[in-house]
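FIELD: query
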Amino acid sequence: MLRYLPNSLTLLRLALAVPLGVLILREEYTWALGIGVLAGLSDALDGFIARRLDALSRFGAALDPIADKILITVTFVCLAQAQLAPWYLAVAVITRDLVIVVGGACYYKLIGPFELAATSLSKVNMFIQISYCVLVLSTQVIDGIPPAATLAGTVAVLFTAAASGFDYVMSWTIKAIAARSKKA
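FIELD: result
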């Protein structure tokens, strides 16, 4: 029964995306913060538990990045719509994800199947993005969080999104060149 726990956590994260977005738009920030923290913890725990229980699955490996992208996209769009985060930041986060998805599709079409595995930089990026969302929601619930913290978070999200996106593009380019040279 425990072997299903990692996938259940991923499905939970996916299911929390819409309620989190609705709560942000309704300005129910205390509830949104609680759900955001829960979603962030589920992201941290699902992979750890899967490795610990040796319960890795193809379904979980495919669903985890989808859940991450949906959760992050919904959250950043709703934070921007509520004027809690700048729109350019939401666009940067979404653009990074689109570059990865389109890059993967192009690689598959032009080169062939590949194994999509999160890089260390991508994991740092996700941690920074989730932390930023929790920070922004915290500023609406907790007094005394300095605006400089949110500004620093904005810079960190922009930097890691750009670096992680570039990392994927470069690694797939190198793999594509190597695969093409093997075929030649």
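FIELD: remark
The chain has a mean pLDDT of 91.
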